[in-house]
Amino acid sequence: MRNSIKRYAWFVMVLLLLGSCGKLDMNPLSKGSSETWNSVPEEIDMSLNGLYKAVFWPVDQDDWTDDWMYREDLTPVTNATVNGQSGWVGDWWKNAYKCIARANDVIASVDRAADVLSQEQRDRYVAEARFVRASQYALLLARYRNIVYTETMVEIDEALTAEQADPEMVLQKIYADYDFAAANLKTEYSANELKRATAGAALAMKARIALQMSDWEVAKEAAKACMDLGIYKLHSDFAGLFLSKTKNSVETIFGFPRSIELNVTKGDCQNYVSRNAGGWAAKVPSWDLFCAFLCTDGLPIDKSPLFNPHKPFENRDPRCTKTIVEFQTPLLGFMYQPHPDSLQVLNVNTGKKVNNNDTRSVAQYASYNGLLWKKGVDDDWLKNSWKIEPDQIIIRYADVLLMYAEAKIELGALDESVTDAINQVRARAYGVEPANVAAYPAVQLGSQSDMRRIVRTERRMEFALEGIRYMDIIRWNLAEKVLNKPNYGLLDVADLRKKVIEPKLWFFPQAPTIDEDGVADFSIMASAGLIKQITIRKFDASRQYLWPIPTTEILTNSNLKQNPNY
Questions:
Q1: Positive or negative: CA dihedral 239, 74, 92, 477
Q2: Please, are residues 321 and 302 in contact by the beta-carbon 8 Å criterion?
Q3: Which of 99, 129, 485, 502 could be a cystine partner for 106, CB 3.0 to 4.6 Å?
Q4: Full DSSP string of 444-462
Q5: Helices (H) and strands (E) in the chain — how many of each?
Q6: Of 61, 60, 59, 81, residue with least CA distance to 537
Q7: Coil, helix or strand for 148?
């Protein structure tokens, strides 16, 4: 463990030493002051380490989706106000091109080490840089679509006159980089090596961008190639995968470690934690997500006889209670019960009742819809001043399995490999082997539309709070549907007492209907005054399926054209 920390510390210190740069013409500080930089392995390693800075690997935000509620707040995405001046729109663009410039510099200069490195060794370094370059272009292509492409270091005058490239050409260039990386990178690292990009990561990330671009054949082949490596498998415990104590899981294909000791942590924890435990219970799962989890018979809640709206956590897919806190269960030292009649709850550590700050009858700003996140939350969240150190997972094996299944479904190539891939993920959630079909609702092969619905629901249950949902609803063209619906929550306390306690209508008066896209309809309950509309989300389908080109880029380069309707 001490050696691992030392290796990680060295990695982090290198990243901290690497400074920021300009736009497309930036000259990375990792290049040093001499034209001889990257002429020895140590210098190339430093340059490559600089490509793994956290700002170069952003994750789509769950608050851009229908899985999320933050009291009455909306984001520029969910309020349809995103524009070229939105902060992250410029940051993602700028940082991606910084990283691309650094990767291009490594690729161009690695032959300076020809005297000390073999061709195979140099190819491996180039492969890593090309993996990073492909990942950055994939990020840009999937979100902005009309982007600038370059494989060389660009002078300032060239940067100010660069034109946007054909998106299909960019996609093929991305594929070529990933293919080179997959052919030349290691498949695994030994225990004493710092783990970076691998052949499997190249294949998985290639499958992801292919899926996002609806290139089903390439997505299928890349995902299958990753599966056939035989290196990755699902973590044995779904809930345990996301905890700080789980490091470098066999399910993680590509990701980064975190470390409290080195101040590389996941932040903003108090917004997710119950008020009894010292948090704010502000950022919570939406009812839309809660109702998307199937019942243990594999049916949606409006079709299953097992669903009881008054006991909505019972008989649900196990990922439901591993993602969202079940009522009347212990959480961080306290029983969690947001019912308006539960003015006190048990402190499980002392055995005594305390005021229940997790009900709005006691605390006005308790969870607006009664729900809290459970995924990844454990007692570690109460230590170290709300800093936690779970691995940052960029892509994991469950995603590869479900991408493979989805690509085959969209190709109409329905066979047992599709159900096998989905059932591996579903069986893991139930803690059983896929072959034990009596112990979980195994998926059976159906029509293309049936299988499409199944795999999309599986992705939502599996990847909640992992930054996956946003690009899913974008590429499925569902954003205009799910983000133009209200976000609902609990009635105000006075109405709760009158309409919930007396008629015994807690938690839901009835099961909401679930449509063919897995979207819940709460309108009947809302019209009856049994639940409260908290916010109205908005999504402008005429423009928001792409992000705007940052305004600063448009103003400095007249050759760049803004995306439609921005």
A1: positive
A2: no
A3: 129
A4: ----HHHHHHHHHHHHHHH
A5: 18, 12
A6: 81
A7: strand
- The predicted-structure confidence for 103-133, as pLDDT tens digits, reads as follows 999 999 999 999 999 999 999 999 999 999 9
Whether residue 523 is predicted with pLDDT greater than 90 in this model: the reply is: yes
pTM passes above 0.85: yes
* Cα 435 from Cα 415, distance rounded (Å): 16
User: Could you tell me the pLDDT band of residue 88, with boundaries at 50, 70 and 90?
Assistant: very high
Cα 69 from Cα 487, distance rounded (Å): 7
Per-residue DSSP letters for 66-86? TTEEETTB--TTTBT---TT-
Question: Which phi-psi region, left, alpha or beta, contains residue 315 (left: φ > 0; alpha: ψ -120 to 50)?
Answer: left
Token pair recorded at residue 155 = 């002078």
- Determine how many CB atoms are found less than 10 A away from the CB of residue 363: 16
Which pLDDT tens digit goes with each residue over 48-78? Answer: 999 999 999 999 999 999 999 999 999 999 9
Residue with tokens 């969240």: 381
Burial label, 452 (beta-carbon count in 10 A; 0-12, 13-18, 19+): middle
- Asked if residues 202 and 193 have their Cβ atoms less than 8 Å apart, the reply is no
Q: Are strands 334-336 and 520-521 parallel, antiparallel or unpaired?
A: unpaired
pLDDT value of position 159: 84
Per the listing, tokens 């924890």 go with: 269
